[in-house]
Each structure stands twice: as C-alpha cells, then as structure tokens.
Amino acid sequence: MKRLYVLILVSVVLSSCSKDKLEDIKLEGNPHEEFEMMVPVIITNLHSFSTTGSFDNRVVINFEVSTYYLSLIQNRPYKFRLYRNGVYRTDFLSPDGMFFNDGVTPKTYNYTVSMKFTDDGFETQQSDMELITID
Amino acid sequence: MKTRIKILVFIGLMMLTTIGYSQTGTVKIITNPSKAIIRLDTTLLKSNVPVQVKPGDYTLKMWSPKRRFYEQKLTVKSDSNIRLMKTLTFEPEYLKYQKALRKYKYKRVTRKYLPIPIFLGLSIYNFKEVSKYSSKVDENYNNAINQQESYNTARFLESIESHKVSYEGYKNAYDENRSKLNRVKFITYSTLAIGTFVSWYLLRNASKLEKPVYQEKTLLSNLEFNYIQSEGSNFVMLTFNF
Asked: Which of B157, B165, B185, B188 to mutate to test the interface with A (most CBs of A within 10 A)?
C-alpha cells in the first residue's frame, strides 16, 4: 500500500512538471544580418502638403540610418537614393528633414530609400516602403 | 440594710447569669473554596459563619470535591474566639487528571482539527502560485513567439537587433518562470499528497485517543441529620438536608 502510494506520488509530481515548449524554437538568423543583405535605412516620417496657388505637391521625408551599419562601413563615402514606386527618383546627402518638390498628381505612392557607396558603387537593400496619398 | 442586701443579691444573680452565658467559645472557619464541607466533629459548619460551641476538644474536618481532605484537632476554651483560614489544595490525582486532560485536548486539536486546514491553506496558496507562474510562462512564451516572428520579418538592422534582444529577454523570463513553475508544482503536489496522507494518519490517530477520566472520591459528607420526635405519637423522624 505504501509503495503504491509513493509510486502515485512520484508519478503525479513528475507528470506535473511543464515541458520546455521553447526548447526547439530558436532564432534561425535573419538574412538581412548578412552585410550584402543589410537594410541600413528606415523611413521615419513621410507627409505631403501643397502651396497656395500651385498645383505642385511637396513631400517631406525623414529617415534614419542604422548606427551599427555606420560603424561597419566606417568612413566610406555614400549618398541616399530615393525611389518612388520602385523607380529611382533622386539622391540626398543627408537624412535630416529632407524636403523636395515632387510634383506628383493625386495618387497613392510608395517610397523607399537605399544607400549607395560612391567609392565602389555598391547599393544597399532598399528600406521598407512607406505609403503616402497625394490629394 | 435590706436595700443593700437586695442590691448585692441582684449583682450576684447578674454575675451568675453572665458566667452561665459565657460557657461557650466561638469558632469561625473560612475556607477556600467557600463551598467546602466543614465538620467540627459531627456539626456541619459553613465557611465564614461563626458558631458557638462548648469548650472541649474537637476534630475539624474539611473537604471539597477535587480537593485534599484536611483534618486537625481543635481545642475550644470558654470565651475563646477561634478563627481559622484554610485553602484546600487540589488532590494530586486531580492535578494529574487535569494535566492528562490538557494533553489530550492538545493532541486532539493538533491531530484532528489543525492538519487539514493547514495543508488545505498551503495547497490553496501553492495553487495560486502555480496559476501565477503558469500565466507568466504563457505570457512570456507568447511574447517570445511574437518577437521571433517580428525578428524573422524585420529588415531594418536596428529592428532586427531590437527583436533579437526582446526575444532573448522573453526566452530567459520564460525559462526562469518555467523553472519556478515546476518547482511550485512539485511543492504543491507533494504538499497535497503528503498533507492528505499525514492528515488521514493523524485523524485516524486522533480517533484512537482516550479521554482521561477522573474518579471522584467523597471523603466527607454534607448530609445533616435531624432527629425529630413527634409529640403525642410513637414515632421519631430522621431527616437530612442536602
């Protein structure tokens, strides 16, 4: 009787322990952690406005650059490339408060930004796209 | 002359009367407990009530239930005023019985009424802990999975790093809480199992406990007999007071 009781106790205690469900779930590695696949730019702000008496729309775009990426490339010269709907539009030298007259017609557009090195011409992956509707 | 003789005779008579009245002594016994049975030879006395008795040697007996019997010789002289205070101590057997009764009650309470609430309280507390850690484990698991998904789909380097750090944080929290959960579960089920066994054993043990009994002995009676002879009839009546 006592042995049976101890057996039941041990079984209950052992079966009560929860299993490690995360044991087999591990981070397998994001492909964008490879240098060639890195996306160093992210668009942080995008909005448009029009000036009185003008049919042109102005788009303000702000983006930020990965500090980790900047530490990797050290002092290599580069510029930013802006794409609208996947088509190259213009270059910028600074990501701060970028402002330009895009002259678009009312429509929804997507914008992406990449970095291009001026020494060897290598261009990084484009940033995640940001949508904007121009009225 | 005649008047003087009359006065002397009167004084003499007064003195004789006084002498006649003072041929007793007063006895007053004060006992603790006050309801103790007190006998001066065969006379039943009450505590703190003085009685007049004739001079002579008496045996004073005192007793109260559960108390020790007390006896002493008492000599009463004319005009004497005896006042005696006495505390009757408990009988050793009664003290032993009381000790055994306390022990019995203590054992009964600790074996019959204490284990179940204690183990029940502990189990409830532990189940609450299990529930707490269980929800923490689930929460951290879900967060880790979300962070893993976000990490896999992230493209911006800082986001990748941020999701990676968050995933590791949630995973560590998950591991820590899972370990705590397992420990608490082990304690809970062990407590429940051991508690059930111990409670059942003690309960069975408590039912076998024997309550001590005190056999009281009457060492002094408080019966008071009254002898009454009926006038004009041929019978006597013997009555007693309880």
From this structure: B157
